[in-house]
Amino acid sequence: MTATVLDVRGLSKAFGGVRAVDDVHFTIAAGELLALIGPNGAGKSTCFNMLNGQLRPDGGSVQLNGRSIVGLPPRRVWRLGVGRTFQITATFVSMTVRENVQMALLSHHRRIGAVFARAGDLYRDEADALLERVAMRDQAERVCGVLAYGDLKRVELAVALANDPKLLLMDEPTAGMAPKERVQLMELAARLARERQVAVLFTEHDMDVVFAHADRIIVLDRGKLIAQGTPAEVRADPQVQAVYLGSGAMYGHAH
Ligand SMILES: Nc1ncnc2c1ncn2[C@@H]1O[C@H](COP(=O)(O)OP(=O)(O)OP(=O)(O)O)[C@@H](O)[C@H]1O
Ligand SMILES: [Mg+2]
Q1: Rounded to the nearest whole angstrom, what is the distance from the C-alpha of residue 161 to the centroid of ligand 2?
Q2: Which ligand is in closest contact with the Cα of 171?
Q3: pLDDT at position 115, please?
Q4: Ligand nearest to the CA of 50
Q5: What per-residue confidence (pLDDT) applies to 177?
Q6: The sheet that has 59-64: what strands, in order across it?
Q7: Going from the N-terminus, what domains does the chain have, and what CATH number goes with each?
Q8: Alpha carbon of 22 to those of 39, 99, 103, 190, 242: distances in Å?
Q9: Which of 14, 55, 186, 203 could staple 213 via S-S, CB 3.0–4.6 A?
Q10: Chain centroid to CA 60: how far?
Q11: Residue 9 pairs with which residues in a beta bridge?
């Protein structure tokens, strides 16, 4: 029996009259890749923002390894082991790839003051090891500002991994990527989940990528959870098919 890392119940958030997230529940186990899908405006990003402390839920519970994280600020949630990659990349553009990962390692080890002393050497090997994992070791000396988008996303993943996360949140990690890059990034995330026993929650609009890589899928529509299960179960669900009908996304690319 695998350990439940994240346990979400009754999660709700309204913006004015819009119920962006309405009574949503799910769990994620260590080493599991859970996809959160749904049309534009379904409430996916709002869910993410509540899980990492950026947004306070109106109601519901969020437990990380049995501990409530509702109401904690993002910094605290990050400290407890929730890593995140963003829809818009958040690296330091003027620093090199390696320095970005070193900064994250320094912060993780609570040695942020040391960065002014000898950042050049601190955690250099650890940073390179992480960059090796995301296939960015050969670009360690480049400043982030000049990187291709897909490469930047991999650096961002290395930065998230520097925190040794128990839960990794990836909100549309492959947005703006070429199809081949999308598959590679998701394969990498899936491999990291398995090898490091990280629980991974990701959103993705490309159904090919979702059905190929997710262990389980949950589907939101206008804030409500309409289905959850294995890729096969979700694909066969009539309500899910109704939501995606017209886009053709569910049918054209079955694996
Ligand atoms: N800060 C906000 N203020 C007001 N309304 C918001 C806010 N954030 C989200 N919403 C609304 O909440 C609903 C859910 O939005 P959300 O961004 O969570 O959807 P999403 O599933 O991430 O969509 P997308 O696939 O386009 O990223 C939408 O109706 C959106 O307009
Ligand atoms: Mg979103």
Answers
A1: 22
A2: 2
A3: 52
A4: 1
A5: 82
A6: 18-29, 4-15, 59-64, 67-68
A7: 1-72+167-255 (3.40.50.300), 82-164 (3.40.50.300)
A8: 15, 41, 37, 28, 20
A9: 186
A10: 21
A11: 61
Q: 105-139: buried (b, 16+ CB within 10 Å) or exposed (e) per residue?
A: bbbbeeeeeeeeeebeebbbeebbebbebbebbeb
Question: How many whole angstroms separate alpha carbon 185 and alpha carbon 163?
Answer: 19
Buried b (16+ CB within 10 A) or exposed e, 58-70: bebebbbbeeebb
CA-based radius of gyration for the chain: 18
Amino acid residing at 190? A
Residue showing tokens 């979400």 = 8
CB 195 within 8 A of CB 111: no
Beta strand extents in the chain (DSSP E only) = 4-15, 18-29, 33-37, 59-64, 67-68, 82-85, 167-170, 199-203, 216-221, 224-229
Specify whether the CB–CB gap between 9 and 225 falls below 8 A.
Answer: no
Q: Which atom of ligand 1 is nearest to the CA of 49?
A: 18
Please give all residues whose beta carbon lies within 6 A of any atom in ligand 1, as ranges: 15, 18, 20, 38, 40-46
What single letter denotes the amino acid at residue 192? L
Q: Output the pTM of the full model.
A: 0.88
